[in-house]
Amino acid sequence: xxxxxxxxIAAALIGGIxxxxxxxxxxxxxxxxxxxxxxxxxxxxxxxxxxHTITMIDFRYGAIPPTDGKxxxxxxxxxxVDFKPQYVVRSDYDQKLSAVVASGxxxxxxxxxxxxxxxxxxxxxxxxxxLNDLLDNYPTMKQIPDNIRKAVTVNGNIYAVQRYLTENYxxxxxxxxxxxxxxxxxxxxxxxxxxxxxxxxxxxDPDGNGKNDTYGIAMSQxxxxxxxxxxxxxxxxxxxxxxxxxxxxxxxxxxxxxHIGWLADLYKEGAITKDFxxxxxxxxxxxxxxxxxxxxxxxxRGMNPTYMQGLxxxxxxxxxxxxxxxxxPDGSQGFVSSPGFYGIxxxxxxxxxxxxxxxxxxxxxxxxxxxxPLEERxxxxxxxxxxxxxxxxGYKIEDGSVRREVEEKGLAPINYLxxxxxxxxxxxxxxxxxxxxxxxxxxxxxSLEKMHGETKHLINPIxxxxxxxxxxxxxxxxxxxxxxxxxxxxxxxxxxxxxxxxKEWSDKGGAQIIKEVNEALQANGYSGPEWK
Length: 532
Description:
The chain has helices at residues 7-15, 45-49, 70-79, 90-103, 117-124, 139-142, 146-149, 177-183, 191-203, 254-268, 281-289, 305-314, 355-369, 382-387, 439-453, 468-490, 498-523, and strands at residues 52-60, 81-89, 109-112, 153-154, 157-158, 161-164, 172-176, 215-217, 238-241, 247-249, 293-298, 320-322, 335-336, 341-347, 395-398, 401-404, 457-458. Helix 10 (254-268) packs parallel to helix 16 (468-490) and helix 11 packs parallel to helix 12 (305-314). By secondary structure, the chain is an alpha/beta fold. It contains 17 helices and 17 strands.
């Protein structure tokens, strides 16, 4: 659950445990994509004669399904194709994909984790098929908002189908309400109140065990989480402007400077994880879920039930609730939305000469993306049952939850389809809170869903544009800023060094990033902050 925007990484981990997509409902009898009964595999003589071979290259973080798995055979039978996917471990994928594209032997379907510099380069070179005239023909693709489509638009052409990610369910601060109640404290509504709460959690024995063994804020290396209580303080949001009127990343803003000073004050009080600069994410989770720290982060989706069960065993009466966003000095109040997608699917430009194959591919994509409400994800829904490899074979339902066979067995079509993440009509429709079996986790997720449903979210403009310099230098420049800002929190450097730090960041490439991003935003018609 690392907020470190590499939202892509968080999404990858969450994707491993999220419910996969399905199509239709339990009463549907006709499958519009295949023309046959739902879950059946009719194939006319004409279909047999026109069977398309469809190739694909994709990546995997974990297990790779077999090349002859039952799920793959089910796809071939249902769609009347000869589907030939190739999977590459994520660590090797970028190099492999670059070699494939350079060879000119590009598969029909190409997947990437995000639109990086290669995506934009290859799109400009004509490697991908423009999809402008196709997307709105398919229900799940028509739902992709215009602001999200901009991220994969080059010179007016949309070159990718984006895979689903909740818009607003980002990681945001949560707090031990039972500790607040024990100390007679109210929910903090600004940073000064939050500071006093964190100090009280450190010095006033909120768990009542008579020991000096608790503190306020759990944090790890790279100042993570940063505890930005709204877009105004979010280090990843391009919300503030510099003296030249250009949008800048939050991590170099005056608001961030004040925030680092706030964290430095808390560190002096012992209210932040003492050795946070040395802790990885798993270790920081342990600080909170072992009952030591009282303030952390959470999200409705993909939280770890094992961690939460561990807290329950230590503190059976624990109660965790979200901290609503603070009102900012400029009057804004709300968190930042996500990029709105994780993963992109492109088609080979040469498919322009094969419209029937393109149609078949788009049908396969749309089928895997179609939303099924939580209560309908059962064996009685023929499409859900098929996608998951048939009950008793590819999955089982135990205690109301779907238990899938491991992907390396290749028993289900969802192990192979190019897009298996259903596109929900809205965040709340996913019903993530209903999936958790640990009561405390279920309650927290439900309260987070409610909070986000009642909260405005800034559409982060950086998610709709590309900067070549940012793609190349962001990791290096961000590491520099994390290091310098950590020193300020520790008291090793004065906050008065802030301007010098920003200048060095700018000289190393930051100024060029700001220039490129603002030029791209201007070309996109950006007119100011947009909230949803």
